[in-house]
Amino acid sequence: MEQCIEQYPVELYPIAEVKPKKFPKFDYHKKYSIKSLILLFFSFAFIGWCWEVGLFYFTEGTFINRGFLIGPWLPIYGSGGVLMILLLRKWIDKPVLTFFLIMILCATVEYFTSYFMESFYNIKWWDYSGYLLNLNGRICLEGTVFFGVGGCAIIYIVAPLFDDLYHKINPKMEIALCLILVTLFVADFCHSISKPNTGDGITSAVPCITEKIRS
Q1: In Å, what is the CA distance from 29 to each residue of 25, 89, 155, 190, 195?
Q2: 67 Rama class: left (phi>0) / alpha (psi -120 to 50) / beta
Q3: What is the residue-level pLDDT of the chain in tens, covering all 215 positions?
Q4: Which residues are CB-contacts of 118 (< 8 A; sequence separation ≥ 6)?
């Protein structure tokens, strides 16, 4: 006896198709426009400021406006991030090599920034003298490795992601935002040249996280 097998009436009761989740893809080979580079500079500078302020608050329990400038930005982070993107494109498909090149680049920028600022003002805005394998207190291995990891995140994930977000902004609004940020930054910089941001927790030794955790 033949059995009559009824087919499921897909037309009447469609089965929802479960699509596999796709991980976001970041095009780290993209070329960034001048507008994007300006916004990336300020994004990295702000993130760096948040990191420095948060680090000091975590270790000392006090909010301190870290940095040479008054505004919520640290240009050494912004310039370092933009330099990575512009100078290391040739080796971007070699992540391990890129990691070490980022370490070298960031260590160079940090060392000479510290040197020139100290030479001009006779003040230290950071001092890694208490850290392992430091060079004249200007750079240290721990910080350089951190910048290597953070730099890779910037090149391969953060910068492409932020660039996609910037493209969603109206072009005229994007230009206006760039002009406003640059104007505020230049005004802040010109003011801080003669009256830099100094004081306890700003122009003093950098708090060492490992020592705080151990204690």
Answers
A1: 12, 8, 9, 35, 41
A2: left
A3: 455 556 656 566 566 666 666 656 778 899 999 999 999 999 999 999 999 999 888 888 888 898 999 999 999 999 999 999 999 999 999 999 999 999 999 999 999 999 999 999 888 899 898 888 999 999 999 999 999 999 999 999 999 999 999 999 999 999 999 999 999 999 999 999 999 998 888 885 444 444 443 33
A4: 124
**Looking at residue 18, what DSSP letter applies?**
-
Question: DSSP secondary-structure letter at 137?
Answer: T
Please give the single-letter amino acid code of residue 110. E
CA–CA dist 7, 17 (Å, integer): 18
In angstroms, the CA 26 to CA 65 distance is 33
pTM of the model: 0.83
Rounded Cα distance, 141 and 160, in Å: 28
The tokens describing 135, both together, are 């060079």
Cα 155 from Cα 198, distance rounded (Å): 32
| Cα distance between residue 55 and residue 156, in whole Å | 25
The CA–CA distances, whole Å, from 127 to 111, 118, 177 equal 11, 11, 35
Contact 141, 151 (CB under 8 A): no
Q: CB-based burial of residue 191 (10 Å sphere; 0-12 exposed, 13-18 middle, 19+ buried)?
A: middle
Selection from 140, 126, 80 nearest residue 105 by Cα: 80
